[in-house]
Design a protein that fits this description.
The complex is a heterodimer of chains A (about 160) and B (about 775).
Chain A: E1 9-12, H1 16-28, E2 35-38, H2 41-49, E3 65-68, H3 77-86, E4 95-99, H4 104-112, E5 117-120, H5 125-142, H6 148-152
Helix pairs in contact in A: 1-5, 2-3
Chain B: H1 2-8, H2 24-54, H3 61-86, H4 90-120, H5 124-164, E1 168-173, E2 178-181, H6 183-189, H7 193-196, H8 201-205, H9 213-223, E3 225-233, E4 239-250, E5 256-265, H10 267-282, E6 286-290, E7 296-299, H11 301-307, H12 311-314, H13 325-340, E8 345-346, E9 353-356, E10 362-374, E11 377-386, H14 388-410, E12 414-419, E13 424-427, H15 429-434, H16 446-452, H17 455-471, E14 473-481, E15 488-499, E16 505-514, H18 516-575, H19 581-612, E17 618-621, H20 622-631, H21 636-639, E18 642-646, E19 651-654, H22 656-673, E20 680-689, E21 692-699, H23 731-741, E22 746-750, E23 756-760, H24 767-780
Parallel strand pairs in B: 18-20
Antiparallel strand pairs in B: 1-2, 1-5, 3-4, 4-5, 6-7, 6-11, 8-10, 9-10, 10-11, 12-13, 12-16, 14-15, 15-16, 17-19, 20-21, 21-23, 22-23
Helix pairs in contact in B: 2-3, 3-4, 18-19, 19-23, 20-22, 22-23
Classes of the chains: A alpha/beta (about 160), B alpha+beta (about 775).
Chain lengths: ~160, ~775
């Protein structure tokens, strides 16, 4: 696991094969050392809200991107998304839904809850690799984020 | 001294007695006469002096003084005559005489000078006459004073009497200045006599005149009197209506002197009159009051409205102008008959009466008459009501009844009308026929009807009737056993309760119908409905399962595919050196199989989604939908040489997203199956077929054997090998599903190697629009 300060991407993925493939794709994009992988919704929330196993993690640091699967054990992806986007401290963290589902209701629901993007995992690995590379390029290099403090201080 | 001596010194003359020879008789005659004359002469001035002193008004008083001196002088001469009889003082006597002469001459001259003035002095007779006249005058005046005193008393009495009347009476001068003001006026106007006196009456009372004051005054001047109604204002400002009578008083020389005004307060009466007038005017009916000669005396506004005449055109005219010409003659006789024995009654005794408007049109009316006794004789008041509306209503009712009768007959309804007290009912023939009789039964009632009802439904029948008393009506269905063939029939019965004037249930009226056929149909329908509900229930279950299945497919089936693809690719790209060439080939096959599997899953999911998705219909131009589909074609479509022949397409109502899929699939197929053609040709257009606008997509590709046409639209059904033409066998199944969901049809015609044509319609709903658009399209071509 990399140093939490270096973490740029939080990958929430319960399927180990998917996780391995994702990491492989990230490695190709030279982003693998900046990734933290958690395997269920609860752990993802613990990490982002600095509680449970992650209570030592400093609040000021937040990843530049959360890649969130929807079908997750314990707390499912929608619930994680709802909680992140309703909490002022985590609201500004970009969340990209990365899922196998092509269901319209999932798409609509995700955007209603404030997802920043929605991507269906392509069957083809080469396409997947390309998607991961573009995601890293956009959210880590092009996108500008407000300082975490600006949000943690807000009273709402 | 000398003169004195001469006068009074005894002289030598002989006394005068000597002349008389002292004849005593003669001497004494003279002595006595002279003495008497002297005495008289001395008396006269005394009287004159007294007179002057008492009557200082006498003219010429100085004449009396002069005369007095002259008389005294004369008297003195006579005294001297007596003296000289014995003494001979002739000088002294002469002086006296000279003095007397001077006084006499002076008096005479004065008298002569006084003469012209003295002539003018009234003579005594005139004085006497004047005196008599004066006395008469004095007497007259005394009489007059007496009269005056008497008339003053009368006048006061009359004034008091005037004060007693209720009328306001005042007298005013010609300049309208008030000179008399009675108590009645004080009471009526609130102005006290002192306040009113010398005021200008019209100003004091703020009089409102019905006609210009000048006209009234002219009439008063001409005729001596005027009568009319005025509005005066009380001291507190309140207006009062008075009946006013003016009378002109003339003086002895017939000149106008004063005006007497008698005013009676008729405000109350006026208000009552106004109320009566309002009542009359607001009456909903026309009211016409006619005198004994049949002349109209009074009409109300409704009369004007109803007959189109103005009030002026009616008053004073014979009432017959309101009656159609053909009835006028008869009416005069009727009218005279009525005036013989007037009493309130309806006119016409039930016959239809008509009035005549000014424009000659007639209107049906109802008239009631009543006599009014007045001082002008018996008047007849007629109340006229326009019954046009009522006649219309009656006619409409009749028409409506006829329609109802027709409807009842057409609907094969039986009618019944039941008297609740006697339980006897009137029915139509159809009613009894429904109960199985050929002709009307002599007796019918609720009890008899109940006997026909099957025992199971009798309770319902009874309770429906009983409830109707509460709810004023009922509607029920029950089974009866028909008379004659004893067949079981369903009847439906509706009834409505009629109450008498006291509100007690009196009658029940209604209809019955034989509903056996309908009942059977309903029962059948109900069976079908239940069956349908069951199958719908199953269908819903299936749908739910399908949904769960497709969700699972999209998630769970795709995951292992992804993994196989991912790891196979990593293997191939990063570990190819560790594999034999054959091993790499196998990896390629694995990757191809995974890709195909991915397409299969996607197509299947699409198919399932289309099956349950709601259609979103919009009116769209199909040209645009087609262009969008063409833009999504694989790159091959643009790279190859294809002759596209596209006709203009109409505007239709459809789900554009799904119709786009139809075009996309059909065009993909056309592109795919013309791949072997050097000159591929794809045609898209419309044609009319059985009145339905039909779309077609035609290619010059490899085509298919028509004997397999039935397999064309089945899922996973393929007419070509995967080796020749790739595909999942889901595309046309999807197309057919979309077309069917629009209510349309799809079919294809082809011969092997001779190209294929796919036809489709989008349902009947668009037919009309298609035709219209088709015409436009033809015109363009």
């Amino acid at each position: 696991m990399p140093n939490s300060e270096a973490v740029e991407i939080l990958l929430v993925e319960d399927n180990p094969s998917d996780a391995v493939l994702a990491m492989h794709a990230l490695e190709k994009s030279k982003l693998a050392n900046k990734v933290c992988v958690v395997s269920d919704g609860e752990e993802a929330l613990d990490y982002l809200l600095c509680r449970g196993n992650y209570s030592d993690r400093p609040l000021q640091t937040a990843p530049s991107l959360v890649l969130l699967d929807l079908k997750l054990p314990k707390v499912d992806g929608m619930e994680v998304l709802r909680e992140l986007k309703s909490n002022p401290r985590t609201r500004s963290i970009p969340v990209v839904i990365l899922t196998a589902s092509k269901e319209e209701r999932d798409l609509v629901q995700s955007y209603k809850l404030g997802a920043n993007s929605y991507i269906q995992k392509p069957v083809s690995f080469s396409e997947f690799q390309e998607v991961v590379q573009q995601l890293g390029m956009y959210w880590l290099l092009l996108n500008s984020r407000p300082p975490v403090a600006a949000f943690s201080e807000s009273s709402d | 001294m000398g003169l004195w001596n001469l006068l009074f010194t005894p002289s030598d003359f002989m006394p005068h007695g000597y002349c008389y020879l002292w004849n005593p008789g003669l001497v004494w005659l003279h002595v006595i006469s002279d003495a008497l004359i002297a005495l008289a002469y001395f008396t006269i001035p005394v009287v004159l002096i007294l007179l002057i002193r008492k009557r200082r008004d006498l003219p010429f008083s100085w004449m009396f003084v002069l005369f007095g001196v002259f008389i005294v002088a004369c008297g003195t001469t006579h005294v001297m005559e007596v003296w000289n009889l014995w003494h001979a003082d002739y000088w002294f006597s002469g002086v006296i005489k000279a003095t007397t002469a001077a006084a006499s001459v002076g008096t005479a001259i004065s008298l002569v000078r006084l003469m012209p003035e003295a002539v003018l002095l009234p003579r005594t007779s005139e004085w006497i006459k004047a005196n008599a006249r004066l006395e008469n005058e004095i007497r007259d005046r005394r009489d007059l004073e007496l009269d005056l005193r008497i008339s003053e008393a009368n006048y006061r009495q009359q004034a008091e009497l005037l004060d007693l009347t209720h009328d306001a009476i005042f007298v005013r001068s010609l300049s309208s200045s008030i000179v008399y003001w009675n108590r009645g006026a004080e009471r009526l106007y609130g102005w006290q006599r002192e306040d009113a006196m010398r005021k200008v009456s019209h100003e004091l009372l703020h009089t409102e005149f019905p006609i210009p004051l000048a006209e009234i005054e002219a009439e008063v001047r001409d005729k001596g009197a005027w009568e009319g109604e005025l509005v005066h204002h009380r001291r507190d400002g309140a207006p009062i209506v008075v009946s006013s009578r003016w009378a002109l008083q003339l003086d002895s020389s017939n000149q106008p002197m004063r005006i007497l005004e008698i005013n009676r307060d008729i405000t109350q009466r006026k208000m009552q009159e106004k109320k009566f007038r309002n009542l009359l005017e607001s009456a909903p009916d026309a009211m016409v009051i006619v005198n004994e000669r049949g002349q109209i005396q009074l009409v109300n506004a409704q009369t004007e409205k109803l007959f189109g005449y103005s009030r002026e055109e009616l008053i004073g005219h014979p009432v017959e102008i309101l009656i159609p010409e053909k009835f006028r003659g008869g009416h005069v006789a009727h009218r005279q008959g009525y005036s013989q024995s007037p009493h309130p009654r309806e006119m016409g005794a039930g016959a239809e009466l008509y009035g005549r408007r000014k424009d000659g049109t007639e209107l049906p009316v109802e008239i009631s008459l009543s006599p009014i006794e007045t001082e002008e004789g018996t008047l007849v008041s007629s109340t006229i009501r326009d019954v046009t509306e009522r006649r219309h209503v009656a006619e409409a009712l009749k028409a409506s009844e006829e329609r109802l009768q027709m409807a009842v007959e057409a609907a094969q309804l039986g009618i019944w009308d039941l008297d609740l007290t006697t339980d006897r009912a009137f029915r139509s023939l159809r009613h009894d026929q429904i109960f199985g009789y050929h002709s009307l039964q002599p007796e019918w009632g609720a009890e008899i009807a109940e006997r026909h009802v099957v025992p199971e439904d009798r309770e319902l029948f009874r309770s429906s009737f009983a409830d109707a008393i509460e709810t004023n009506g009922f509607s029920m269905e029950c089974r009866i056993r028909r008379a004659g063939d004893h067949s079981l029939r369903w009847i439906s019965a509706q009834g409505r309760l009629c109450r008498d004037l006291e509100g007690k249930p009196a009658r029940m009226m209604g209809v019955i119908a034989d509903t056996t056929e309908r009942k059977h149909a309903e029962q059948e329908l109900e069976l079908h409905r239940q069956k349908l509900a069951r199958s719908n229930f199953n269908l819903a279950d299936v749908n739910k399962e399908l949904e769960a299945f497709s969700y699972s497919v999209s998630h769970d089936l795709r995951a292992p595919l992804r993994h196989i693809d991912g790891f196979a690719r990593i293997l191939k790209e990063e570990h190819a050196s560790e594999l034999s060439a054959e091993g790499v080939q196998h990896l390629d096959r694995i990757l191809a199989a995974v890709t195909h599997m991915g397409h299969l899953v996607d197509d299947l999911l699409n198919l399932a989604r289309i099956g349950r998705k709601e259609l979103v219909r919009r009116t769209v131009k199909l040209d645009r939908v087609l262009r969008e589909a063409m833009a999504d074609l694989p790159p091959e479509a643009k790279e190859r040489k294809i002759d596209w022949q596209i006709e203009p397409l109409p505007e239709v109502e459809c789900d554009p997203g799904l119709v786009k899929l139809v075009f996309l699939n059909l065009l993909q197929n056309a592109v795919k199956f013309t791949r072997s053609r050097q000159e591929a040709s794809i045609q898209i257009g419309t044609l009319a077929r059985d009145g339905n606008l039909t779309f077609f997509v035609r290619d010059n590709g490899v085509g298919f054997d028509p004997k397999h046409a039935d397999k064309l639209f089945g899922v996973f059904q393929r007419l070509h090998s995967e080796r020749d033409f790739e595909g999942t066998g889901v595309g046309l199944a999807t197309v057919q599903r979309i077309i069917h969901r629009h209510g349309g049809e799809i079919w294809a015609e082809s011969q092997p190697d001779r190209g294929a044509t796919f036809f489709f319609t989008l349902g009947d709903l668009q037919t009309e629009r298609h035709h219209k658009s088709g015409e436009v399209k033809l015109a363009k071509l």
